[in-house]
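Bit of a strange request maybe. I'm writing a small parser for structure token strings and I need a real example to test against, not something I typed by hand. Could someone generate the tokens for this chain?
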Amino acid sequence: MPDQVRHDGLGNRKIKDFQMNRKIFFHPERCMLCHSCILACQMDSLSVSDPQKIPFHKKPPQRIRITFSRGTPWVWKCQHCLSAPCVEACVSGSLTAMEGGTGVIQHPETCVGCGSCLLVCPYGALSYDEDEKRVTKCNLCLEEDRPSCVMACQSGALVFQELNTFTQGKRKRMAGGKGEVHGMG
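Reply from user aminoacidic:
Good idea to test on real output. This should exercise your parser:
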């Protein structure tokens, strides 16, 4: 497949067309709590390919984390909201909605570190980078074919696909392959 790359609204970030409608989804029943997704994201954020080369003095930004709710693991990361409160709250324009409302992209070079986006995010998905004095979040690794966290997930707990594909698969699993979803009106 030829590389279909274009620039975002600012003209400085390459976005592959086949990624535009995809999001990261989480299957908690598949998660083995290996934290590979977190390590891969941190390594990507620091541009290192070997965990032993992570600088001791540099704290990687936390763009993804694992929490527990009622004994079930949950991966917390930016949900790339359709109507994103963080974009509305961003005073510097560092957070922008992608074309067609398919995601929220951060341009860290323009972030002033005011934290207004942190206050309004309903998922607590943004974090403040003390070293850089600015906010950081998941940008879906738009320069890559798949996000680093998804590539690192060996159990298939994290998947990168279109919403329709994800929901169709979920309906089939819930219906037991019978073509209808149980408990759905």
